[in-house]
Amino acid sequence: MVAKPNPFHSALKQLEIAADLLKLDPDVHQLLKEPKRVVTVAVPVRMDSGEVRTFMGYRVQHNDARGPFKGGIRYHPEVSLDEVKALAFWMTWKCGVVDIPFGGAKGGVVCNPKEMSLAEKERLTRRYTSMIAPIIGPFVDIPAPDVYTDAQTMAWIMDTYSQLIGRPEPACVTGKPVTLGGSEGRAQATGLGAAICAREAVKTFGLELKDATVAIQGFGNVGSNAALALAEMGCKIIALSDSRGGIFSKKGIDPLKALQHKKETGSVVGLAGCEEITNEELLELECDILLPAALENVITSSNASKVKARIVVEGANGPTTPEADRILYDNKVFVVPDILANAGGVTVSYFEWVQNLNRDHWTLSEVKRKLEERMVSAFKTVYETSVKQNIDMRAAALMVGVGRVAEAIKMRGLWP
Ligand code: NAD
Protein backbone atom coordinates (compact mmCIF):
# COMPACT_ATOMS: atom_id res chain seq x y z
CA MET A 1 0.00 0.00 0.00
CA VAL A 2 1.23 3.52 -0.84
CA ALA A 3 1.75 5.65 2.30
CA LYS A 4 -0.71 8.54 2.64
CA PRO A 5 1.03 11.85 1.89
CA ASN A 6 1.67 13.88 5.04
CA PRO A 7 0.18 17.40 4.65
CA PHE A 8 2.84 18.87 6.95
CA HIS A 9 5.55 17.63 4.60
CA SER A 10 3.70 19.35 1.74
CA ALA A 11 3.49 22.57 3.77
CA LEU A 12 7.24 22.47 4.51
CA LYS A 13 8.05 21.76 0.86
CA GLN A 14 5.91 24.74 -0.20
CA LEU A 15 7.67 26.97 2.32
CA GLU A 16 10.98 25.84 0.84
CA ILE A 17 9.79 26.78 -2.67
CA ALA A 18 8.81 30.25 -1.43
CA ALA A 19 12.07 30.62 0.51
CA ASP A 20 14.11 29.86 -2.62
CA LEU A 21 12.11 32.25 -4.79
CA LEU A 22 12.21 35.04 -2.19
CA LYS A 23 15.84 34.34 -1.23
CA LEU A 24 14.47 34.32 2.28
CA ASP A 25 16.78 35.09 5.17
CA PRO A 26 17.69 31.63 6.59
CA ASP A 27 16.85 32.82 10.14
CA VAL A 28 13.34 33.75 9.05
CA HIS A 29 12.97 30.50 7.11
CA GLN A 30 14.03 28.55 10.20
CA LEU A 31 11.55 30.42 12.38
CA LEU A 32 8.68 29.79 9.95
CA LYS A 33 9.34 26.04 9.78
CA GLU A 34 7.83 25.48 13.23
CA PRO A 35 4.60 26.77 14.77
CA LYS A 36 5.02 29.32 17.54
CA ARG A 37 2.81 27.29 19.88
CA VAL A 38 1.22 23.82 19.88
CA VAL A 39 -1.34 22.85 22.48
CA THR A 40 -2.56 19.27 22.84
CA VAL A 41 -5.55 18.53 25.04
CA ALA A 42 -7.31 15.35 26.11
CA VAL A 43 -10.98 16.31 26.20
CA PRO A 44 -13.23 14.23 28.48
CA VAL A 45 -16.87 14.11 27.36
CA ARG A 46 -19.85 12.41 28.98
CA MET A 47 -21.64 10.57 26.19
CA ASP A 48 -25.42 10.14 26.14
CA SER A 49 -24.91 6.55 27.35
CA GLY A 50 -23.37 7.84 30.59
CA GLU A 51 -19.90 6.63 29.63
CA VAL A 52 -17.02 9.17 29.60
CA ARG A 53 -14.87 9.21 26.47
CA THR A 54 -11.65 11.14 25.95
CA PHE A 55 -11.01 12.88 22.62
CA MET A 56 -7.63 14.27 21.56
CA GLY A 57 -7.73 17.91 20.52
CA TYR A 58 -5.17 20.38 19.17
CA ARG A 59 -4.70 24.09 18.67
CA VAL A 60 -1.68 25.06 16.62
CA GLN A 61 -0.60 28.71 16.40
CA HIS A 62 1.87 29.09 13.57
CA ASN A 63 2.74 32.76 13.27
CA ASP A 64 1.29 36.07 14.48
CA ALA A 65 3.74 38.61 13.06
CA ARG A 66 0.94 40.36 11.12
CA GLY A 67 -1.85 40.13 13.70
CA PRO A 68 -3.77 37.77 16.01
CA PHE A 69 -3.79 34.08 15.08
CA LYS A 70 -6.79 33.02 13.02
CA GLY A 71 -7.99 29.64 11.85
CA GLY A 72 -10.78 27.10 11.81
CA ILE A 73 -11.55 24.13 14.02
CA ARG A 74 -12.03 20.74 12.38
CA TYR A 75 -13.87 17.72 13.80
CA HIS A 76 -12.89 14.56 11.92
CA PRO A 77 -11.76 11.02 12.80
CA GLU A 78 -8.56 11.50 10.79
CA VAL A 79 -7.42 14.76 12.39
CA SER A 80 -3.72 14.51 13.33
CA LEU A 81 -1.24 16.96 14.77
CA ASP A 82 0.64 17.11 11.46
CA GLU A 83 -2.56 17.89 9.59
CA VAL A 84 -3.43 20.71 12.01
CA LYS A 85 0.12 22.07 11.73
CA ALA A 86 -0.12 22.12 7.93
CA LEU A 87 -3.51 23.84 8.06
CA ALA A 88 -2.08 26.47 10.46
CA PHE A 89 0.82 27.18 8.05
CA TRP A 90 -1.61 27.64 5.17
CA MET A 91 -3.68 30.06 7.26
CA THR A 92 -0.60 32.23 7.82
CA TRP A 93 0.15 32.49 4.10
CA LYS A 94 -3.54 32.89 3.21
CA CYS A 95 -4.00 35.93 5.46
CA GLY A 96 -0.87 37.35 3.82
CA VAL A 97 -2.20 36.70 0.30
CA VAL A 98 -5.48 38.56 0.93
CA ASP A 99 -3.59 41.10 3.03
CA ILE A 100 -5.66 40.94 6.19
CA PRO A 101 -4.09 41.64 9.60
CA PHE A 102 -4.15 38.11 10.99
CA GLY A 103 -1.65 35.33 11.53
CA GLY A 104 -2.28 31.62 11.06
CA ALA A 105 -3.64 28.96 13.41
CA LYS A 106 -5.81 25.86 13.27
CA GLY A 107 -7.61 23.55 15.65
CA GLY A 108 -8.88 20.02 15.44
CA VAL A 109 -10.47 17.30 17.50
CA VAL A 110 -10.17 13.61 16.63
CA CYS A 111 -13.81 12.50 16.69
CA ASN A 112 -16.54 11.29 14.39
CA PRO A 113 -19.26 13.95 14.61
CA LYS A 114 -21.51 11.84 12.35
CA GLU A 115 -21.80 9.31 15.17
CA MET A 116 -22.39 11.88 17.92
CA SER A 117 -25.65 13.45 19.08
CA LEU A 118 -26.07 17.24 19.11
CA ALA A 119 -25.79 17.24 22.91
CA GLU A 120 -22.53 15.22 22.77
CA LYS A 121 -21.10 17.63 20.20
CA GLU A 122 -22.07 20.56 22.42
CA ARG A 123 -20.37 19.04 25.49
CA LEU A 124 -17.26 18.26 23.42
CA THR A 125 -17.13 21.80 22.00
CA ARG A 126 -17.59 23.47 25.39
CA ARG A 127 -14.96 21.34 27.14
CA TYR A 128 -12.46 21.72 24.26
CA THR A 129 -13.06 25.50 24.29
CA SER A 130 -12.46 25.66 28.05
CA MET A 131 -9.17 23.80 27.58
CA ILE A 132 -7.85 26.13 24.87
CA ALA A 133 -9.42 29.27 26.43
CA PRO A 134 -6.11 30.47 27.95
CA ILE A 135 -4.59 30.82 24.47
CA ILE A 136 -7.55 32.18 22.45
CA GLY A 137 -9.39 35.52 22.55
CA PRO A 138 -10.34 38.44 20.30
CA PHE A 139 -6.82 39.89 20.23
CA VAL A 140 -4.91 36.63 20.54
CA ASP A 141 -6.40 33.80 18.47
CA ILE A 142 -9.82 33.73 16.84
CA PRO A 143 -11.26 30.33 15.78
CA ALA A 144 -13.77 29.76 12.93
CA PRO A 145 -15.61 26.82 11.31
CA ASP A 146 -13.92 24.13 9.23
CA VAL A 147 -14.83 20.55 8.26
CA TYR A 148 -17.83 19.27 10.29
CA THR A 149 -18.08 22.38 12.46
CA ASP A 150 -20.57 25.15 11.74
CA ALA A 151 -22.28 28.31 13.03
CA GLN A 152 -23.84 26.34 15.92
CA THR A 153 -20.39 25.12 16.99
CA MET A 154 -19.13 28.73 16.90
CA ALA A 155 -22.11 29.86 19.01
CA TRP A 156 -21.14 27.31 21.71
CA ILE A 157 -17.52 28.50 21.59
CA MET A 158 -18.64 32.13 21.92
CA ASP A 159 -20.92 31.29 24.85
CA THR A 160 -18.33 29.15 26.67
CA TYR A 161 -15.58 31.73 26.26
CA SER A 162 -17.95 34.54 27.36
CA GLN A 163 -19.04 32.55 30.44
CA LEU A 164 -15.41 31.97 31.40
CA ILE A 165 -14.46 35.67 31.22
CA GLY A 166 -17.76 36.89 32.69
CA ARG A 167 -18.95 39.10 29.80
CA PRO A 168 -20.16 38.60 26.24
CA GLU A 169 -17.25 38.53 23.79
CA PRO A 170 -18.58 38.01 20.24
CA ALA A 171 -15.21 38.87 18.65
CA CYS A 172 -13.58 35.73 20.16
CA VAL A 173 -14.79 33.58 17.26
CA THR A 174 -16.10 34.10 13.69
CA GLY A 175 -18.62 32.23 11.59
CA LYS A 176 -21.22 32.73 14.33
CA PRO A 177 -24.96 32.85 13.65
CA VAL A 178 -26.00 36.32 12.51
CA THR A 179 -28.13 36.79 15.67
CA LEU A 180 -24.96 36.49 17.79
CA GLY A 181 -22.93 38.99 15.79
CA GLY A 182 -22.08 36.77 12.84
CA SER A 183 -21.53 38.53 9.54
CA GLU A 184 -24.00 38.49 6.72
CA GLY A 185 -22.51 36.39 3.94
CA ARG A 186 -19.98 34.48 6.11
CA ALA A 187 -21.59 31.10 5.44
CA GLN A 188 -21.38 31.64 1.65
CA ALA A 189 -18.03 33.47 1.68
CA THR A 190 -15.55 30.66 0.99
CA GLY A 191 -17.61 29.19 -1.85
CA LEU A 192 -18.33 32.61 -3.31
CA GLY A 193 -14.64 33.56 -3.10
CA ALA A 194 -13.72 30.35 -4.93
CA ALA A 195 -16.30 31.12 -7.63
CA ILE A 196 -14.85 34.63 -8.04
CA CYS A 197 -11.40 33.04 -8.48
CA ALA A 198 -12.80 30.63 -11.07
CA ARG A 199 -14.29 33.58 -12.95
CA GLU A 200 -11.00 35.50 -12.86
CA ALA A 201 -9.07 32.38 -13.96
CA VAL A 202 -11.38 31.87 -16.94
CA LYS A 203 -10.85 35.54 -17.88
CA THR A 204 -7.10 34.98 -18.13
CA PHE A 205 -7.88 32.57 -21.00
CA GLY A 206 -9.93 35.34 -22.64
CA LEU A 207 -13.09 33.27 -22.12
CA GLU A 208 -16.47 33.70 -20.42
CA LEU A 209 -17.84 31.63 -17.56
CA LYS A 210 -21.15 31.11 -19.36
CA ASP A 211 -21.71 27.38 -20.03
CA ALA A 212 -18.31 26.39 -18.55
CA THR A 213 -18.60 22.86 -17.15
CA VAL A 214 -17.79 22.37 -13.47
CA ALA A 215 -17.13 19.29 -11.29
CA ILE A 216 -17.12 19.78 -7.52
CA GLN A 217 -15.79 17.29 -4.98
CA GLY A 218 -17.34 17.78 -1.52
CA PHE A 219 -20.79 19.30 -1.12
CA GLY A 220 -20.52 20.86 2.32
CA ASN A 221 -20.22 24.54 3.15
CA VAL A 222 -17.57 25.35 0.53
CA GLY A 223 -18.67 23.00 -2.26
CA SER A 224 -22.37 23.80 -2.10
CA ASN A 225 -21.87 27.56 -1.94
CA ALA A 226 -19.35 27.45 -4.78
CA ALA A 227 -21.87 25.43 -6.82
CA LEU A 228 -24.64 27.97 -6.16
CA ALA A 229 -22.41 30.93 -7.02
CA LEU A 230 -21.00 29.32 -10.17
CA ALA A 231 -24.47 28.27 -11.37
CA GLU A 232 -25.59 31.88 -10.87
CA MET A 233 -22.62 33.03 -12.97
CA GLY A 234 -23.91 30.81 -15.81
CA CYS A 235 -21.76 27.68 -15.37
CA LYS A 236 -23.07 24.16 -15.87
CA ILE A 237 -22.44 21.97 -12.81
CA ILE A 238 -21.94 18.49 -14.27
CA ALA A 239 -20.75 16.58 -11.19
CA LEU A 240 -20.98 16.76 -7.40
CA SER A 241 -19.92 14.45 -4.58
CA ASP A 242 -19.71 13.93 -0.84
CA SER A 243 -18.24 11.31 1.45
CA ARG A 244 -20.77 8.71 0.22
CA GLY A 245 -20.00 9.10 -3.50
CA GLY A 246 -20.66 11.28 -6.53
CA ILE A 247 -23.25 12.12 -9.17
CA PHE A 248 -22.88 13.13 -12.81
CA SER A 249 -25.19 14.64 -15.40
CA LYS A 250 -24.08 15.85 -18.82
CA LYS A 251 -27.14 18.13 -18.96
CA GLY A 252 -26.22 19.84 -15.71
CA ILE A 253 -27.24 19.55 -12.05
CA ASP A 254 -29.33 22.15 -10.25
CA PRO A 255 -27.37 22.77 -7.00
CA LEU A 256 -30.56 23.79 -5.18
CA LYS A 257 -32.12 20.41 -5.98
CA ALA A 258 -28.90 18.67 -4.88
CA LEU A 259 -28.99 20.61 -1.59
CA GLN A 260 -32.60 19.63 -0.98
CA HIS A 261 -31.80 15.99 -1.76
CA LYS A 262 -28.81 16.06 0.61
CA LYS A 263 -31.00 17.58 3.32
CA GLU A 264 -33.56 14.81 2.93
CA THR A 265 -31.25 11.82 2.47
CA GLY A 266 -27.88 12.91 3.91
CA SER A 267 -26.11 12.66 0.54
CA VAL A 268 -26.16 13.97 -3.03
CA VAL A 269 -26.07 10.34 -4.21
CA GLY A 270 -29.39 9.21 -5.66
CA LEU A 271 -30.47 12.59 -7.07
CA ALA A 272 -32.98 11.97 -9.86
CA GLY A 273 -31.65 12.21 -13.41
CA CYS A 274 -27.99 11.67 -12.44
CA GLU A 275 -25.57 8.80 -12.93
CA GLU A 276 -23.55 7.63 -9.94
CA ILE A 277 -19.77 8.07 -10.07
CA THR A 278 -17.00 7.64 -7.52
CA ASN A 279 -15.04 10.49 -5.97
CA GLU A 280 -11.99 9.31 -7.91
CA GLU A 281 -13.88 9.36 -11.24
CA LEU A 282 -15.12 12.88 -10.52
CA LEU A 283 -11.54 14.17 -10.35
CA GLU A 284 -10.78 12.73 -13.79
CA LEU A 285 -13.85 14.06 -15.60
CA GLU A 286 -13.66 16.04 -18.82
CA CYS A 287 -14.63 19.55 -17.64
CA ASP A 288 -13.51 23.19 -17.70
CA ILE A 289 -13.28 23.71 -13.94
CA LEU A 290 -12.54 21.14 -11.22
CA LEU A 291 -13.19 22.35 -7.70
CA PRO A 292 -11.99 20.03 -4.93
CA ALA A 293 -13.84 21.12 -1.77
CA ALA A 294 -13.45 18.18 0.64
CA LEU A 295 -10.15 17.10 2.19
CA GLU A 296 -6.39 17.09 1.57
CA ASN A 297 -4.31 14.97 -0.82
CA VAL A 298 -6.93 14.02 -3.39
CA ILE A 299 -4.81 15.02 -6.40
CA THR A 300 -1.56 13.10 -6.04
CA SER A 301 1.22 11.79 -8.27
CA SER A 302 -0.97 8.76 -9.02
CA ASN A 303 -3.92 10.61 -10.56
CA ALA A 304 -2.65 14.11 -11.50
CA SER A 305 -1.88 13.09 -15.08
CA LYS A 306 -5.50 11.95 -15.45
CA VAL A 307 -6.97 15.34 -14.50
CA LYS A 308 -8.62 16.67 -17.67
CA ALA A 309 -9.94 19.97 -16.31
CA ARG A 310 -8.36 23.14 -17.72
CA ILE A 311 -8.65 24.93 -14.41
CA VAL A 312 -8.44 23.57 -10.85
CA VAL A 313 -9.79 25.88 -8.14
CA GLU A 314 -8.82 24.59 -4.71
CA GLY A 315 -11.79 25.16 -2.43
CA ALA A 316 -10.32 22.64 0.03
CA ASN A 317 -7.07 23.16 1.87
CA GLY A 318 -4.18 21.11 0.55
CA PRO A 319 -6.01 18.98 -2.06
CA THR A 320 -2.93 18.78 -4.32
CA THR A 321 0.44 17.32 -3.28
CA PRO A 322 3.64 19.10 -4.43
CA GLU A 323 4.41 16.18 -6.81
CA ALA A 324 0.95 16.48 -8.37
CA ASP A 325 1.44 20.23 -8.68
CA ARG A 326 4.42 19.66 -10.96
CA ILE A 327 2.44 17.27 -13.16
CA LEU A 328 -0.51 19.66 -13.46
CA TYR A 329 1.83 22.54 -14.35
CA ASP A 330 3.58 20.47 -17.00
CA ASN A 331 0.18 19.50 -18.42
CA LYS A 332 -0.81 23.20 -18.55
CA VAL A 333 -3.62 22.87 -16.01
CA PHE A 334 -4.16 26.28 -14.42
CA VAL A 335 -4.33 25.81 -10.63
CA VAL A 336 -5.80 28.51 -8.39
CA PRO A 337 -4.15 27.46 -5.10
CA ASP A 338 -6.01 27.02 -1.81
CA ILE A 339 -4.34 29.96 -0.07
CA LEU A 340 -5.97 32.20 -2.68
CA ALA A 341 -9.02 30.23 -3.83
CA ASN A 342 -10.53 29.59 -0.40
CA ALA A 343 -9.44 32.86 1.23
CA GLY A 344 -12.97 34.29 0.94
CA GLY A 345 -13.84 32.61 4.25
CA VAL A 346 -11.14 34.22 6.32
CA THR A 347 -11.73 37.51 4.54
CA VAL A 348 -15.35 37.66 5.66
CA SER A 349 -14.27 36.33 9.08
CA TYR A 350 -12.06 39.41 9.24
CA PHE A 351 -15.08 41.57 8.29
CA GLU A 352 -17.05 39.85 11.07
CA TRP A 353 -14.31 40.58 13.63
CA VAL A 354 -14.16 44.24 12.57
CA GLN A 355 -17.97 44.52 12.86
CA ASN A 356 -17.88 42.87 16.33
CA LEU A 357 -15.16 45.18 17.61
CA ASN A 358 -17.08 48.22 16.32
CA ARG A 359 -20.49 46.88 17.47
CA ASP A 360 -21.55 47.32 13.84
CA HIS A 361 -23.52 45.24 11.33
CA TRP A 362 -22.96 45.50 7.59
CA THR A 363 -25.51 44.60 4.91
CA LEU A 364 -25.06 41.53 2.71
CA SER A 365 -24.44 43.69 -0.35
CA GLU A 366 -21.73 45.63 1.51
CA VAL A 367 -20.03 42.38 2.58
CA LYS A 368 -20.22 40.95 -0.94
CA ARG A 369 -18.85 44.14 -2.50
CA LYS A 370 -15.90 44.21 -0.10
CA LEU A 371 -15.24 40.47 -0.61
CA GLU A 372 -15.32 40.90 -4.39
CA GLU A 373 -12.79 43.77 -4.14
CA ARG A 374 -10.39 41.80 -1.93
CA MET A 375 -10.58 38.59 -3.95
CA VAL A 376 -10.13 40.29 -7.33
CA SER A 377 -7.22 42.31 -6.03
CA ALA A 378 -5.53 39.25 -4.47
CA PHE A 379 -6.07 37.23 -7.66
CA LYS A 380 -4.54 40.05 -9.72
CA THR A 381 -1.48 40.33 -7.45
CA VAL A 382 -0.87 36.56 -7.55
CA TYR A 383 -1.50 36.26 -11.29
CA GLU A 384 0.82 39.17 -12.09
CA THR A 385 3.51 37.66 -9.86
CA SER A 386 3.18 34.32 -11.66
CA VAL A 387 3.53 36.00 -15.07
CA LYS A 388 6.40 38.24 -14.00
CA GLN A 389 8.38 35.43 -12.35
CA ASN A 390 7.28 32.78 -14.87
CA ILE A 391 6.10 30.47 -12.08
CA ASP A 392 2.86 28.63 -11.34
CA MET A 393 0.05 30.25 -9.37
CA ARG A 394 0.84 28.35 -6.14
CA ALA A 395 4.47 29.43 -6.13
CA ALA A 396 3.30 32.99 -6.86
CA ALA A 397 0.72 32.94 -4.05
CA LEU A 398 3.37 31.57 -1.67
CA MET A 399 5.76 34.33 -2.73
CA VAL A 400 3.11 36.95 -1.94
CA GLY A 401 1.91 35.36 1.33
CA VAL A 402 5.24 34.24 2.76
CA GLY A 403 6.86 37.47 1.53
CA ARG A 404 4.43 39.65 3.49
CA VAL A 405 4.88 37.58 6.65
CA ALA A 406 8.67 37.64 6.32
CA GLU A 407 8.61 41.41 5.89
CA ALA A 408 6.55 41.80 9.09
CA ILE A 409 8.98 39.54 11.01
CA LYS A 410 11.93 41.60 9.79
CA MET A 411 10.31 44.92 10.65
CA ARG A 412 9.33 43.77 14.14
CA GLY A 413 12.79 42.39 14.90
CA LEU A 414 13.63 39.90 17.60
CA TRP A 415 12.71 40.60 21.21
CA PRO A 416 14.56 40.74 23.60
P1 NAD B 1 -18.02 20.68 5.45
O1 NAD B 1 -17.92 19.82 6.64
O2 NAD B 1 -19.09 21.68 5.38
O3 NAD B 1 -18.09 19.79 4.12
C1 NAD B 1 -17.17 18.78 3.82
C2 NAD B 1 -17.71 18.01 2.62
O4 NAD B 1 -16.72 17.08 2.20
C3 NAD B 1 -18.97 17.21 2.91
O5 NAD B 1 -19.84 17.27 1.81
C4 NAD B 1 -18.45 15.79 3.08
O6 NAD B 1 -19.40 14.82 2.78
C5 NAD B 1 -17.34 15.80 2.05
N1 NAD B 1 -16.35 14.76 2.29
C6 NAD B 1 -15.81 14.35 3.45
N2 NAD B 1 -14.96 13.35 3.23
C7 NAD B 1 -14.94 13.14 1.90
C8 NAD B 1 -14.28 12.23 1.05
N3 NAD B 1 -13.41 11.35 1.55
N4 NAD B 1 -14.50 12.30 -0.28
C9 NAD B 1 -15.38 13.20 -0.78
N5 NAD B 1 -16.05 14.07 -0.03
C10 NAD B 1 -15.83 14.05 1.28
O7 NAD B 1 -16.57 21.36 5.33
P2 NAD B 1 -16.20 22.70 4.57
O8 NAD B 1 -16.20 23.80 5.57
O9 NAD B 1 -16.98 22.83 3.33
O10 NAD B 1 -14.66 22.42 4.24
C11 NAD B 1 -14.25 21.75 3.06
C12 NAD B 1 -12.82 22.12 2.74
O11 NAD B 1 -12.72 23.54 2.59
C13 NAD B 1 -11.79 21.76 3.83
O12 NAD B 1 -10.57 21.45 3.21
C14 NAD B 1 -11.66 23.05 4.60
O13 NAD B 1 -10.43 23.14 5.30
C15 NAD B 1 -11.73 24.05 3.47
N6 NAD B 1 -12.08 25.41 3.88
C16 NAD B 1 -13.23 25.69 4.51
C17 NAD B 1 -13.53 26.99 4.85
C18 NAD B 1 -14.84 27.38 5.48
O14 NAD B 1 -15.11 28.59 5.58
N7 NAD B 1 -15.69 26.46 5.90
C19 NAD B 1 -12.63 28.03 4.56
C20 NAD B 1 -11.45 27.72 3.89
C21 NAD B 1 -11.19 26.40 3.55
Describe the secondary-structure layout.
Elements lengths: L6 H16 L3 H7 L4 E10 L5 E12 L5 E8 L4 H17 L6 E7 L7 H15 L8 E5 L5 H15 L20 H19 L8 E5 L3 H12 L3 E7 L2 E4 L6 H11 L9 E3 L1 H5 L5 E4 L18 E3 L8 H9 L3 E3 L1 H4 L2 H14 L6 H26 L3 H20 L4
Parallel strand pairs: 3-4, 3-5, 6-7, 6-10, 10-11, 11-12
Antiparallel strand pairs: 1-2, 2-4, 7-8, 8-9
Helix pairs in contact: 1-3, 1-14, 3-14, 4-5, 6-7, 6-12, 6-13, 12-13, 13-14
Bound molecules: nicotinamide-adenine-dinucleotide (NAD).
Fold and architecture overview:
This protein is an alpha/beta fold. It is built from 14 helices and twelve strands. Strands 9-8-7-6-10-11-12 form a seven-stranded mixed β-sheet, with helices on both faces. Strands 1-2-4-3-5 form a five-stranded mixed β-sheet. α3 (81-97) crosses α14 (393-412), α4 (118-132) crosses α5 and α6 packs across α7 (221-232). It is globular, with a radius of gyration of 20 Å. The structure holds nicotinamide-adenine-dinucleotide (NAD). Nicotinamide-adenine-dinucleotide (NAD) is lined by residues 145-148, 190, 217-223, 241-243, 279, 293-295, 315-317, 342, 345.
